[in-house]
Write a sequence for this structure.
């Protein structure tokens, strides 16, 4: 077989193995290693490329952002800042039709700015927001749908683990990826709030809800107490990077230290809790490092096979326009999103399409935002829909089925798709702050 045939078979084999439940890095590494061996008929070359991939991944200075931001997110979650910001947002939107749903979106956006994890957001707000919405007779499907939809903000509003993974795969600046994610993330949050208003206005049965007559207004002192810690973290991390005062690594360190101080001041962090947080940070870091290493050997395999060049030649020979290529790219991500998680999609498709995007003179930072949002839609779509499964498992309420969660999340997946189209049509939106 030719290298191109081996490369094409390897990509299909990786997708099949991941779908069958093989751990993503193992599938990427094993198939790529064997493919290089077969293409060059040289076991030593394949082994040396694997060694290079491992050493380069581990020695990259920006990789330090991963344990620092992971630690910060875990500490902030344990400190209860998610519940606090939800209480404030709920106070602000309480008297608006569908207001508690809007409050959930706003709180998730703020929480995402210091955690960067969709799974953490889904878990926290399933416990906080869903019972509150059910208390005021909101439709259960709408309640879980809002949490599922807004949880994906954690992967686009910086600091985001997926933006970090993309920056390594595409060799882009982590700081630029973070800054570029701000406006698209806020756009998506605003689109969700607008969609909730529209649903409440034209499909009140789907939203449900009743006035919160027993609501007691929140005083300014309590609002300040609940919001200042979160605002301080956001300014420290995002503000420091944007103003050029800190590198992403330094911002991560400052944010982690400040988050730990907040948790200690609130007495929400014991020595045992700190140890557990450090262990969990290590697990997350090791998992992402394994992913990045696997992506590195996979990219080398694709390069040796010449698959990106072949794909570029096919598209060029058919004279496909930019619009057609992006439609094909989005459809591919939506399809893969039904069977794979976000990290897998990024690791598989980005090395294939980068050689197509670069010659067009398009920004790889913009392309990263498009990729992450497109892949994130998969968190809300069956059969995988990781956020939906997390919400169902966290609630553990027999009245709410997994079908309810998926159907409730469907309108928000549609909103994500609309925002994605807007960002593709107007790349300047993603690059305005750079």
């Amino acid at each position: 077989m030719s290298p191109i045939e081996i490369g094409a078979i390897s990509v299909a084999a990786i997708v099949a193995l991941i779908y069958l439940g093989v751990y993503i890095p193992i599938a990427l590494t094993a198939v790529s290693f064997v493919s290089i061996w077969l293409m060059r008929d040289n076991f030593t070359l394949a082994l040396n490329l694997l060694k290079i991939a491992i050493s380069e991944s581990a020695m990259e200075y920006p990789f330090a952002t991963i344990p620092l931001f992971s630690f910060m997110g875990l500490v902030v979650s344990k400190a209860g800042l998610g519940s606090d910001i939800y209480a404030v947002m709920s106070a602000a939107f309480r008297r608006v039709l569908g207001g508690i749903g809007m409050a959930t979106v706003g709180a998730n956006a703020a929480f995402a700015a210091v955690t960067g994890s969709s799974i953490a957001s889904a878990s926290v707000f399933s416990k906080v927001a869903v019972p509150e919405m059910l208390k005021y007779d909101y439709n259960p499907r709408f309640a879980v749908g809002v949490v599922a939809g807004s949880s994906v903000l954690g992967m686009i509003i910086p600091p985001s683990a997926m933006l970090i993974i993309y920056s390594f795969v595409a060799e882009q600046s982590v700081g630029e990826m973070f800054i570029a994610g701000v406006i698209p993330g806020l756009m998506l949050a605003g689109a969700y709030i607008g969609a909730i208003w529209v649903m409440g206005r034209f499909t009140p049965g789907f939203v449900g809800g009743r006035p919160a007559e027993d609501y007691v207004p929140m005083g300014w002192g309590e609002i300040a107490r609940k919001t200042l810690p979160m605002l301080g973290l956001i300014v420290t991390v995002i503000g420091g990077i944007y103003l050029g005062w800190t590198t992403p690594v330094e911002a991560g360190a400052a944010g982690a230290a400040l988050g730990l101080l907040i948790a200690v001041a609130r007495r929400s962090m014991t020595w045992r809790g700190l140890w557990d947080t450090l262990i969990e940070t290590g697990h997350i870091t090791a998992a992402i490092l394994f992913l990045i290493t696997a992506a590195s050997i996979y990219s080398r395999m694709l390069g040796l096979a010449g698959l990106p060049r072949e794909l570029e030649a096919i598209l060029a020979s058919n004279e496909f326009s930019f619009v057609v290529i992006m439609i094909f790219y989005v459809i591919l991500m939506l399809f893969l999103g039904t069977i794979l998680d976000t990290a897998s999609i990024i690791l598989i498709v980005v090395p294939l399409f980068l050689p197509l995007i670069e010659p067009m003179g398009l920004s790889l930072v913009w392309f990263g935002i498009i990729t992450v949002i497109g892949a994130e839609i998969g968190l809300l779509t069956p059969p995988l829909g990781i956020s939906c499964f997390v919400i169902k498992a966290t609630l553990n309420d027999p009245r709410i089925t997994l079908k309810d969660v998926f159907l409730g999340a469907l309108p928000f997946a549609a909103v994500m798709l609309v925002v994605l189209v807007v960002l593709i049509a107007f790349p300047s939106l993603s690059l305005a702050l750079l």
